[in-house]
Amino acid sequence: MDSLNRSKFGVDGIGDRLEVDFTVTPAGTPATVRLYHLDGALVRELVGVGAADGSMTFTWTGVDGAGDLVPPGSYLCEIAADPDPGSQTVLEVVGVAY
């Protein structure tokens, strides 16, 4: 992968929806967004492949892998493109509130 450029990362102002927009090059590079508890336990994984221009959007509505709402609090959000060794990742702390 050549690059991972984050263009938008943030909650919706209420704290119950996270939208992550970014661009990967080359276009078609697979990407994964993972949400973790602060203790490192995986909460949710979102996987996709970008548009022809490499743009990608992932939305997380505060539900875990079982479809249950997560408790309010802080979570780690990891954006990874091209899961091969040497791939680029971005890690951010996000808050969930209801």
Structure description:
The chain has 98 residues and is mainly β. It has a single domain (3-96), classed as Immunoglobulin-like (Sandwich), CATH 2.60.40.4070. The protein contains no helices and seven strands. The chain has strands at residues 3-11, 18-25, 30-37, 42-49, 55-60, 73-81, 88-96. A four-stranded antiparallel β-sheet has the order 4-3-6-7, with no helix packed on it. Strands 1-2-5 form a three-stranded antiparallel β-sheet, with no helix packed on it. A hairpin with a 6-residue loop joins strand 6 and strand 7. The radius of gyration is 13 Å and the shape is elongated.
Largest sheet: 4 strands, antiparallel
Tally of discrete structural domains: 1
Oligomer: single chain
Q: SSE string, helix = H, strand = E?
A: EEEEEEE
Shape by Cα distribution:
elongated
For the terminal residues, how far apart are their CA atoms? Answer: 37 Å
DSSP helical segment count: 0
Q: Rounded to an integer, what's the Rg over CA atoms? A: 13 Å
CATH topology: Immunoglobulin-like
Global mean pLDDT: 79
Number of strands: 7
